[in-house]
Design a protein that fits this description.
By secondary structure, the chain is α/β, with parallel strands linked by helices. Helices cover 35% and strands 15% of the residues. The longest helix is centred in the middle third of the chain and has 14 residues, at 113-126. Bound molecules: iron/sulfur cluster.
Length: 282
Amino acid sequence: MHQRKPDWLKIRVQDGKNRADVEEILARLSLHTVCEEADCPNLMECFSRRTATFMVLGKTCTRNCTFCVVGKGTTQPVDSNEPLHVAQAVKELNLKHVVVTSVTRDDLPDGGAGHFADIIRQIKILDQKVIVEVLIPDFKGDQSSLMKVIEAKPEIINHNIETIPRLYPKVRPMAIYERSLELLKNVKAIDPQIFTKSGIMVGLGETEDEVINTFQDLRDVGCEILTIGQYLAPSKEHHPVIEYIHPDTFEKYKKVSEEMGFKYVASGPLVRSSYMADKALD
Ligand code: SF4
């Protein structure tokens, strides 16, 4: 049954000038963003704020999450210039907080962890003060891959739990709920100075209790930063939207999760895992 999008999901049009600058820099440095690849509703707002989330390791993923519009199939070779190009873009955009994410590359021996580490180091060579947040895949639970990222010392390691465990087979079939929690737990155990962050989409058929239980599971592994946003179906081929969650419920989720001890919670219909990411460490 097709549901009409409620008013609270309407997006305000932003000015285009900064957006054109951002797009020019990205094109010149052959960089991708998850903003563009995942049709993020906040793209105009973020680009006009001269910020973006870089998507590295190509545009094609080896997984098949049913909520995700990113391309699936034959992956591209790793671009060895990408670390330098990302650092250059950070400089040209004068970013103080940069978010780097990637598709999942189960076809690479370390899942691309070494490439993430190179990018973090290149940015730090440029400016030690830039806050680097990496939104990483689960590296199939491989500890030595995760160590490569941890040793490069980003300020924030983000790994999205995405949804509640009951929905994993339908929403994230190649991921494992406990494996994602384990990753966040290992980061805190190995380097407690690194902030951990995770994000969940709602509106996929979960109950409020299931969502709140997932908050508790994340807190139990020391997760400090949380994002909660409305799932929007990229197309009719993707997992359907089961429910448009009311802003009051997002307020409730924010209050409940803050009471659980999360340092920073962004909760709202248009919130995405790197939306206003710079606010978390303000
Ligand atoms: S692993 Fe990430 S990029 Fe790949 S399909 Fe899932 S959400 Fe999309």
